[in-house]
Structure formats: C-alpha cells, structure tokens
Design brief:
By secondary structure, this protein is of the alpha/beta class. The protein has twelve helices and twelve strands.
Length: 324
C-alpha cells in the first residue's frame, strides 16, 4: 500500500483471513459477504489489503484466524440467504463487499454479530449507524463520500472534454445512494450548463440498453454513479467512443478514461484493522466510522489516444496514477 492509501486512514483497527469450517471454532472466523465475484478486476487487491490490515493486529489467515467467503456473483437477490448462512455458522465478524446491498443484507440477518462496511451512502441516513463518531450499533466501517464527490467527477470530465454539451449519468436504481447522487450531479450540470441525461441500469442487458440510448443522444461523455459491471461499461464506452469517468480505479484499469475517488484498497486495509480490533474484544458500536482524507485521480492515456483526446496538463499534474 502506498503513502496516499495510508493517508486515507483516520483511525486504526486490525484483523486477518483464512479458510473455515464453522463447526471448528478453535480460531476466530471472519465472514466475507461479497456482492460481486472474486474474479472481477480489483477484488484480489482489496482482499490483499484487508489481509494486510489484519496483519497489523497480528492475525494471519489460516494461522490464527479463518475466513469464510460468500459471493453473490452480481445477483443481489442471493445476498440475504448468503448473509443468513454466515450468521448460522456463527462467524465472529462479517465484512461486506460490493456496496450497500451487501451491508443491508447483513444488517437484516443479525443485530449482534459485528458488521464492517464501506458505503457510498451517508451511513447515518442509510440507518447503518447512529452517528459517525459513535455508531452505537453492531455496524461500523468507512464512508466513501460517494455522492459528495460526484460534482468533482463531472468537473474533471469536462476538463478533458471541454466542448461537451450532452452528458449521461449511469446509476444502479437499487443503490441507496443513487437519489443523492442524482441530485448532486443535476445541480452541478445546471451550473456547468450541460444537458444531463439519467440512465438507470441494474443488469448487463440494461447497461447495453443504456449505451444504445447514449449513442442515440450523441452523448459527449458519461459519468458513472453507483453501479457494478465496470469492466463491461469500460469496454462499451471505448467501443462507442464515449469518454467516461468513474469513482473506482478498476474502471480505468479495465480501459475506462478517468477515475476519481478515495482509495478502495485503503478502505479495506482499515476494515482489516477494525476486524482485528473487534476480534481482540473492542465493540463495533465504539469504533468511529472513518472518512477519506486523500483521493486518487487515475488517467488512462492509451484510452485518451484511442478516443482522440488530449488530456490537459492540469489533469496530468494532479493525477496520482497515469496508465500509458
């Protein structure tokens, strides 16, 4: 983990992973409840960061802590059953992956087992915690300030495509943060005097349909709200020559043009630390929800060249990573 990722951390916490047979409770068990699949870009990196965080509290997967993994494979309707299974196996901590849908499923499954989340939403408004400073329940984690950063993402995209007049916003309608995201981007679009079109998609086929709409609109750019399927979206944006920006670095790694947001790996490192601290006896209710303090701007120059765009020096000077 680099220095910028470390700066994301405002507090400390620790934990570690390992395969588990829940019948044998000779060592503590962590349950990972994932909305995605372990094969998609970025998942291996965040799990490695989580294990590093666990290691900071002297927990090592397979040695003194075990980890059970449950993956919904991008089928959110599977999450409640997977969460219930982890609860039935009496894991000591549940760590959610893939957004608020996984956290909500875990919250509905148990009010006693500690749950560690990272959320795109306001965790207080979502009902996850009573307050950021004192969560007061069995949930805590990291708030990624997703909605608050959406105007900045639009601003960065317009720096790269200053002539843009029509912009699309793609979001998952089922995510808790979507309505706040829409409100923030609509206000920013009015200020920038661009025509914003809202596209909501929940499945791969709906994302294909959203891009068909973008082509009809002759959109000059795309901003990603809370949504999965980022590798698919990156490929479609490149195929249809649509400059796009997302919150997550894995979008750019998959061929997207830009990303801007807090480091997800740093968030998982912190979740690992918190998991370890909970295993050592601290309570989730007393561990403050953390917020990012530094942010990553990632640029894919190869994609920019393919799209016929010249990335301004002002963007390159601020970039924390440039892919050439």
């Amino acid at each position: 983990m680099n220095r910028r990722e470390l700066l994301l951390l405002v507090g400390g916490a620790l934990a570690a992973p390992g395969p588990l047979h829940a019948q044998q409770k000779s060592m503590p068990v962590i349950g990972i409840l994932g909305a995605n699949t372990p094969e998609i870009p970025g998942v291996a990196a965040i799990l490695a960061a989580f294990r590093r965080g666990l290691g900071e509290t002297s927990y090592v997967e397979g040695q003194n802590v075990a980890i059970e993994y449950r993956w919904a494979e991008r089928q959110p309707d599977r999450l409640p059953a997977l969460a219930a299974d982890l609860v039935a196996r009496k894991v000591d901590v549940i760590v959610t992956q893939g957004g608020d849908s996984a956290t909500s499923a875990a919250q509905q499954a148990t009010s006693t087992i500690p749950i560690l989340f990272h959320t795109n939403n306001d965790p207080v408004a979502a009902g996850f915690v009573a307050s950021l400073a004192r969560p007061g329940r069995n949930l805590t984690g990291v708030s990624l300030m997703f909605a608050e950063l959406m105007p900045k993402r639009l601003e960065l995209l317009l720096e790269v495509v200053p002539q843009a007049k029509v912009i699309g916003l793609l979001a998952n309608p089922d995510e808790l943060s979507t309505e706040r995201v829409l409100a923030n981007v609509q206000e920013a679009a009015r200020a920038k005097r661009v025509d914003l079109h809202i596209l909501k998609a929940l499945t791969e086929s709906e994302i294909d349909g959203a891009f068909a709409t973008l082509v009809q609109l002759q959109a000059d750019g795309l901003v990603l709200g809370p949504t999965g399927f980022r590798p698919q979206i990156a490929a479609l944006a490149l195929r249809h020559s649509v400059p796009a920006i997302a919150p997550q670095r894995d979008f750019v790694i998959s061929g997207g043009l830009l990303s801007y947001g807090p480091s997800i790996t740093a968030a998982y490192y912190l979740k690992g630390i918190y998991a370890g601290r909970i295993l050592k006896g601290e309570k989730a209710a007393d561990l403050p929800v953390q917020q990012p303090t530094t942010f990553e701007l990632v640029v894919n120059l190869k994609t920019a060249e393919t799209l016929g765009l010249k990335v301004p020096p002002s963007i390159l000077a601020r970039a924390t990573e440039v892919i050439e």
